[in-house]
Protein backbone atom coordinates (compact mmCIF):
# COMPACT_ATOMS: atom_id res chain seq x y z
CA UNK A 1 0.00 0.00 0.00
CA UNK A 2 1.51 3.31 -1.01
CA UNK A 3 1.49 6.64 0.77
CA UNK A 4 0.93 10.01 -0.85
CA UNK A 5 2.48 13.36 -0.19
CA UNK A 6 5.83 12.29 1.19
CA UNK A 7 7.34 15.43 -0.27
CA UNK A 8 10.40 16.21 -2.32
CA UNK A 9 13.33 13.89 -1.83
CA UNK A 10 16.35 15.85 -0.75
CA UNK A 11 20.02 15.24 -0.13
CA UNK A 12 21.59 13.66 2.93
CA UNK A 13 23.06 17.03 3.88
CA UNK A 14 19.61 18.61 3.80
CA UNK A 15 17.96 16.00 5.98
CA UNK A 16 20.74 16.07 8.54
CA UNK A 17 20.67 19.85 8.70
CA UNK A 18 16.91 19.80 9.15
CA UNK A 19 16.62 17.04 11.74
CA UNK A 20 17.13 19.28 14.73
CA UNK A 21 14.18 21.41 13.66
CA UNK A 22 12.14 18.37 12.67
CA UNK A 23 12.50 16.93 16.17
CA UNK A 24 10.21 19.61 17.50
CA UNK A 25 7.48 19.40 14.88
CA UNK A 26 5.75 16.68 12.83
CA UNK A 27 6.96 16.07 9.28
CA UNK A 28 10.51 16.03 8.09
CA UNK A 29 12.74 15.58 5.06
CA UNK A 30 13.71 12.61 2.97
CA UNK A 31 17.17 11.05 2.86
CA UNK A 32 18.59 9.96 -0.44
CA UNK A 33 21.02 7.20 -1.20
CA UNK A 34 24.62 8.20 -1.79
CA UNK A 35 28.24 7.31 -1.06
CA UNK A 36 28.79 5.73 2.33
CA UNK A 37 30.85 7.82 4.74
CA UNK A 38 34.38 6.82 5.59
CA UNK A 39 35.46 5.85 9.11
CA UNK A 40 35.22 8.65 11.63
CA UNK A 41 35.30 8.86 15.40
CA UNK A 42 33.41 10.76 18.05
CA UNK A 43 36.56 12.73 18.88
CA UNK A 44 37.10 13.98 15.32
CA UNK A 45 33.45 14.45 14.39
CA UNK A 46 32.56 16.40 17.50
CA UNK A 47 29.82 13.91 18.35
CA UNK A 48 29.31 12.96 21.96
CA UNK A 49 29.12 9.19 22.51
CA UNK A 50 25.61 7.76 22.35
CA UNK A 51 24.19 4.37 23.32
CA UNK A 52 22.09 2.47 20.78
CA UNK A 53 20.09 -0.73 21.13
CA UNK A 54 19.00 -1.84 17.64
CA UNK A 55 16.26 -4.47 17.50
CA UNK A 56 15.64 -6.60 14.40
CA UNK A 57 12.26 -7.34 12.88
CA UNK A 58 10.49 -10.53 11.84
CA UNK A 59 12.61 -13.36 10.37
CA UNK A 60 15.82 -11.43 11.02
CA UNK A 61 18.42 -11.35 13.78
CA UNK A 62 20.93 -8.91 15.19
CA UNK A 63 23.04 -9.64 12.11
CA UNK A 64 20.84 -7.37 9.96
CA UNK A 65 22.30 -4.29 11.72
CA UNK A 66 25.93 -5.33 11.07
CA UNK A 67 26.96 -2.45 8.79
CA UNK A 68 25.09 0.23 10.73
CA UNK A 69 26.64 -1.09 13.94
CA UNK A 70 30.12 -0.91 12.44
CA UNK A 71 29.64 2.68 11.26
CA UNK A 72 28.24 3.82 14.59
CA UNK A 73 31.09 2.19 16.50
CA UNK A 74 33.63 3.81 14.18
CA UNK A 75 32.16 7.11 15.27
CA UNK A 76 32.70 6.26 18.93
CA UNK A 77 29.18 5.20 19.86
CA UNK A 78 28.13 2.23 21.99
CA UNK A 79 25.95 -0.18 20.00
CA UNK A 80 24.10 -3.36 20.93
CA UNK A 81 22.29 -5.54 18.36
CA UNK A 82 20.70 -8.40 20.32
CA UNK A 83 18.96 -11.32 18.66
CA UNK A 84 15.59 -12.31 20.09
CA UNK A 85 14.77 -15.86 21.15
CA UNK A 86 13.91 -18.15 18.25
CA UNK A 87 15.58 -15.95 15.63
CA UNK A 88 18.98 -15.82 13.94
CA UNK A 89 21.69 -17.58 15.92
CA UNK A 90 19.08 -18.27 18.62
CA UNK A 91 16.67 -20.05 16.26
CA UNK A 92 17.26 -23.34 18.07
CA UNK A 93 15.66 -21.89 21.21
CA UNK A 94 12.21 -21.37 19.69
CA UNK A 95 9.34 -23.14 21.45
CA UNK A 96 5.55 -23.00 21.06
CA UNK A 97 5.31 -20.49 23.93
CA UNK A 98 7.98 -18.14 22.54
CA UNK A 99 6.17 -14.86 21.99
CA UNK A 100 6.04 -11.13 22.50
CA UNK A 101 6.84 -11.21 26.22
CA UNK A 102 9.86 -13.42 25.48
CA UNK A 103 11.24 -10.82 23.09
CA UNK A 104 10.52 -7.96 25.48
CA UNK A 105 12.39 -9.91 28.17
CA UNK A 106 15.31 -10.47 25.77
CA UNK A 107 15.83 -6.78 25.01
CA UNK A 108 15.07 -5.56 28.53
CA UNK A 109 17.68 -7.99 29.84
CA UNK A 110 20.38 -6.54 27.57
CA UNK A 111 19.63 -3.03 28.81
CA UNK A 112 19.51 -4.18 32.44
CA UNK A 113 22.58 -6.43 32.55
CA UNK A 114 24.74 -4.20 30.36
CA UNK A 115 23.68 -1.40 32.76
CA UNK A 116 22.68 0.90 29.93
CA UNK A 117 21.17 4.34 30.38
CA UNK A 118 20.17 7.12 28.01
CA UNK A 119 19.44 4.50 25.36
CA UNK A 120 18.31 5.28 21.82
CA UNK A 121 16.05 2.26 21.35
CA UNK A 122 15.38 1.36 17.70
CA UNK A 123 13.01 -1.29 16.37
CA UNK A 124 12.41 -2.55 12.83
CA UNK A 125 9.13 -3.87 11.42
CA UNK A 126 6.93 -5.66 13.99
CA UNK A 127 9.57 -5.21 16.68
CA UNK A 128 7.90 -1.82 17.08
CA UNK A 129 5.61 -3.72 19.44
CA UNK A 130 8.59 -5.24 21.25
CA UNK A 131 10.45 -1.97 21.80
CA UNK A 132 7.26 -0.31 23.05
CA UNK A 133 7.00 -3.02 25.69
CA UNK A 134 10.65 -2.54 26.62
CA UNK A 135 10.23 1.23 26.85
CA UNK A 136 7.14 0.83 29.02
CA UNK A 137 9.10 -1.36 31.44
CA UNK A 138 12.36 0.64 31.49
CA UNK A 139 11.27 4.22 30.90
CA UNK A 140 14.02 5.71 33.01
CA UNK A 141 16.65 4.03 30.82
CA UNK A 142 15.36 5.25 27.44
CA UNK A 143 16.48 8.55 25.89
CA UNK A 144 14.53 8.17 22.66
CA UNK A 145 12.46 5.49 20.93
CA UNK A 146 12.77 5.13 17.15
CA UNK A 147 10.43 3.11 14.93
CA UNK A 148 12.34 2.02 11.83
CA UNK A 149 9.65 1.31 9.23
CA UNK A 150 7.92 -0.35 12.17
CA UNK A 151 4.48 -0.90 13.60
CA UNK A 152 3.53 1.79 16.13
CA UNK A 153 1.25 0.23 18.78
CA UNK A 154 -1.76 2.29 19.83
CA UNK A 155 -5.29 1.64 21.13
CA UNK A 156 -6.99 -0.78 18.79
CA UNK A 157 -3.67 -2.04 17.38
CA UNK A 158 -1.63 -3.48 20.24
CA UNK A 159 -0.56 -6.61 18.35
CA UNK A 160 0.75 -7.41 14.92
CA UNK A 161 -2.43 -9.31 14.14
CA UNK A 162 -5.55 -8.24 16.02
CA UNK A 163 -8.66 -10.40 16.44
CA UNK A 164 -12.09 -8.97 15.72
CA UNK A 165 -13.12 -7.04 18.87
CA UNK A 166 -16.64 -8.49 18.73
CA UNK A 167 -16.12 -12.10 17.70
CA UNK A 168 -12.53 -12.69 18.79
CA UNK A 169 -11.85 -14.27 15.40
CA UNK A 170 -8.63 -13.57 13.51
CA UNK A 171 -8.83 -12.23 9.93
CA UNK A 172 -9.18 -14.81 7.17
CA UNK A 173 -5.75 -14.02 5.70
CA UNK A 174 -4.13 -14.92 9.00
CA UNK A 175 -6.15 -18.10 9.49
CA UNK A 176 -5.11 -19.25 6.02
CA UNK A 177 -1.49 -18.41 6.73
CA UNK A 178 -1.40 -20.55 9.87
CA UNK A 179 -1.80 -23.65 7.69
CA UNK A 180 1.77 -23.04 6.47
CA UNK A 181 3.34 -22.65 9.91
CA UNK A 182 6.11 -25.13 10.63
CA UNK A 183 5.09 -27.28 13.59
CA UNK A 184 2.06 -25.05 13.97
CA UNK A 185 3.89 -22.02 15.42
CA UNK A 186 6.90 -21.06 13.25
CA UNK A 187 6.34 -18.53 10.46
CA UNK A 188 8.38 -19.06 7.29
CA UNK A 189 9.14 -15.92 5.28
CA UNK A 190 9.61 -17.79 2.02
CA UNK A 191 6.11 -19.31 2.00
CA UNK A 192 4.47 -15.87 2.29
CA UNK A 193 6.63 -13.23 0.61
CA UNK A 194 9.09 -12.65 -2.23
CA UNK A 195 12.51 -11.26 -1.47
CA UNK A 196 11.33 -7.92 -2.94
CA UNK A 197 9.41 -7.39 0.30
CA UNK A 198 12.79 -6.49 1.83
CA UNK A 199 14.86 -5.03 -1.03
CA UNK A 200 14.73 -4.58 -4.81
CA UNK A 201 15.41 -7.56 -7.04
CA UNK A 202 18.13 -5.77 -9.01
CA UNK A 203 21.68 -6.94 -9.81
CA UNK A 204 23.16 -4.31 -7.49
CA UNK A 205 21.21 -5.83 -4.60
CA UNK A 206 22.38 -9.39 -5.26
CA UNK A 207 24.99 -9.52 -2.44
CA UNK A 208 22.34 -8.41 0.05
CA UNK A 209 19.83 -10.87 -1.42
CA UNK A 210 22.31 -13.71 -1.09
CA UNK A 211 22.95 -12.79 2.53
CA UNK A 212 19.23 -12.72 3.32
CA UNK A 213 18.78 -16.14 1.72
CA UNK A 214 21.54 -17.50 3.95
CA UNK A 215 20.50 -15.90 7.22
CA UNK A 216 16.72 -15.47 7.36
CA UNK A 217 15.16 -17.84 9.89
CA UNK A 218 11.65 -18.76 10.96
CA UNK A 219 9.84 -16.53 13.44
CA UNK A 220 7.58 -17.29 16.43
CA UNK A 221 3.98 -16.58 15.44
CA UNK A 222 3.05 -15.49 18.95
CA UNK A 223 5.28 -12.43 18.64
CA UNK A 224 2.66 -11.23 16.15
CA UNK A 225 -0.49 -12.32 17.96
CA UNK A 226 0.30 -11.65 21.62
CA UNK A 227 -1.34 -8.41 22.73
CA UNK A 228 0.89 -5.76 24.30
CA UNK A 229 -0.31 -4.32 27.61
CA UNK A 230 1.33 -1.10 28.77
CA UNK A 231 1.20 0.39 32.23
CA UNK A 232 3.49 3.40 31.91
CA UNK A 233 2.58 4.99 28.59
CA UNK A 234 4.65 2.86 26.22
CA UNK A 235 6.38 5.16 23.72
CA UNK A 236 4.61 8.30 24.91
CA UNK A 237 6.90 10.98 26.32
CA UNK A 238 10.05 9.32 24.96
CA UNK A 239 10.68 11.65 21.99
CA UNK A 240 9.27 9.10 19.52
CA UNK A 241 10.58 9.17 15.97
CA UNK A 242 9.58 7.31 12.83
CA UNK A 243 11.85 6.47 9.88
CA UNK A 244 9.61 5.54 6.95
CA UNK A 245 11.28 3.64 4.10
CA UNK A 246 9.40 5.32 1.26
CA UNK A 247 11.79 3.92 -1.35
CA UNK A 248 10.20 0.51 -0.85
CA UNK A 249 8.39 -0.43 -4.08
CA UNK A 250 6.80 -3.73 -3.06
CA UNK A 251 4.09 -3.20 -0.40
CA UNK A 252 5.46 -0.10 1.27
CA UNK A 253 4.50 0.14 4.93
CA UNK A 254 1.10 1.83 5.09
CA UNK A 255 -0.68 4.10 7.53
CA UNK A 256 -1.73 0.98 9.40
CA UNK A 257 1.90 0.66 10.44
CA UNK A 258 2.77 4.35 10.76
CA UNK A 259 -0.32 5.20 12.82
CA UNK A 260 0.19 8.39 14.85
CA UNK A 261 3.78 8.96 13.76
CA UNK A 262 2.94 11.83 11.40
CA UNK A 263 1.20 13.71 14.19
CA UNK A 264 2.19 16.09 16.99
CA UNK A 265 5.00 15.05 19.29
CA UNK A 266 6.70 12.87 16.69
CA UNK A 267 9.69 13.28 14.40
CA UNK A 268 8.72 11.71 11.06
CA UNK A 269 11.50 11.05 8.52
CA UNK A 270 10.80 9.64 5.04
CA UNK A 271 13.89 7.73 3.89
CA UNK A 272 14.36 7.06 0.17
CA UNK A 273 15.38 3.43 0.62
CA UNK A 274 13.83 -0.05 0.70
CA UNK A 275 12.50 -1.76 3.83
CA UNK A 276 15.90 -3.26 4.73
CA UNK A 277 17.66 0.08 4.48
CA UNK A 278 20.00 -0.87 7.31
CA UNK A 279 21.57 -3.26 4.79
CA UNK A 280 21.30 -1.21 1.59
CA UNK A 281 21.86 2.32 3.00
CA UNK A 282 23.85 1.91 6.24
CA UNK A 283 25.48 5.34 5.89
CA UNK A 284 22.18 7.16 5.66
CA UNK A 285 20.72 5.13 8.49
CA UNK A 286 23.67 5.64 10.85
CA UNK A 287 23.70 9.39 10.14
CA UNK A 288 19.99 9.72 10.87
CA UNK A 289 20.23 7.68 14.07
CA UNK A 290 23.07 9.83 15.38
CA UNK A 291 21.13 13.00 14.64
CA UNK A 292 18.04 11.59 16.36
CA UNK A 293 20.16 10.76 19.38
CA UNK A 294 21.73 14.19 19.50
CA UNK A 295 18.42 16.04 19.16
CA UNK A 296 16.42 14.01 21.69
From TrEMBL:
Protein name: Alpha/beta hydrolase family protein
Organism: Eilatimonas milleporae
GO MF annotation, one: methyl jasmonate esterase activity
Region (Disordered), start-end ranges: 26-46
Residues of the signal peptide: 1-31
Domain of life: Bacteria
Keywords of this entry: Hydrolase, Signal
Keyword Hydrolase attached: yes
AB hydrolase-1 domain: residues covered: 52-259
InterPro entries linked: AB_hydrolase_1, AB_hydrolase_fold, MES/HNL, TAT_signal
